Structures are given as structure tokens and as C-alpha cells.
Amino acid sequence: MEFIYPSRDARIFIPRSLQGQLMSMLPEIAHRRRNATVYWHLDNKYIGMTRHIHQTEIRVGEGEHLITAVDNEGMTVSRKFYCIGTF
């Protein structure tokens, strides 16, 4: 299991929609087992699970964040990233 996005220590701008709403980002991991279940955590809070396609939609504010993915066998990967602003 490995992160595809975000890259390590990424610095990310989060855009706004044409209506002014803050958009989301899509963290993604690759997993060797096709049917693995992955549980996602953002800043140590559970945010959901995925199966087959391991992407999850998140909304973050400015600052440092930690996204963690834990599979159904206990394998864990984490990635720190920074939201450096919205526009």
C-alpha cells in the first residue's frame, strides 16, 4: 500500500468553485490486493472507507494535515501535507 496523492510534504492550494464554495481534494493510494478495504483518517479522525478504488474526497482548511490509510489487515500508511491557501 502506497500513496499516489498527495506527494510527501505536498503544498496544496484548494480552489473554489464558480459559486465560491471550497472544493475538495482526492487523496489516493495503490494497494496490491484488489478487494482490500481501506479505512481513512484525516488528522486522526475517521472519515470513511473505500474498496477497489482507493480515493476519498476530503475538504481541508489552511495548515498542516495528516492523512492515514489503514487496510483490513492492519497495514498503515500516512502522509503529511500542507494546505497553503485557498483561491
Describe the structure.
With 87 residues, this protein is mostly beta strands. The chain has one domain (2-86): Sandwich (Immunoglobulin-like). The protein has strands at 2-5, 10-14, 28-30, 37-42, 45-51, 63-71, 76-86. The chain has a five-stranded mixed beta sheet with strand order 2-7-6-4-5, with no helix packed on it. Strands 1-3 form a two-stranded antiparallel sheet. A hairpin with a 2-residue loop joins strand 4 (37-42) and strand 5 (45-51). It is elongated. 15% of the residues are buried.
- Mean of pLDDT: 94
Task: Tell me the helix content.
Answer: under 10%
CATH class: Mainly Beta
Strands, total number = 7
Q: In percent terms, what proportion of residues is strand?
A: over 45%
Biggest β-sheet: count, sense, barrel? 5 strands, mixed
> How many individual domains?
1
Distance between the termini: 32 Å
Radius of gyration: 13 Å
What is the oligomeric state here?
single chain
Shape by Cα distribution? elongated
Q: Kindly name the structural category.
A: mainly beta
Order of the strands making up the biggest sheet: 2-7-6-4-5
Q: List the uncertain runs.
A: none
The CATH architecture designation is Sandwich
Under CATH, the homologous superfamily reads Immunoglobulins
CATH topology heading: Immunoglobulin-like
Order of helices and strands: EEEEEEE
Summed up, the helix count is: 0
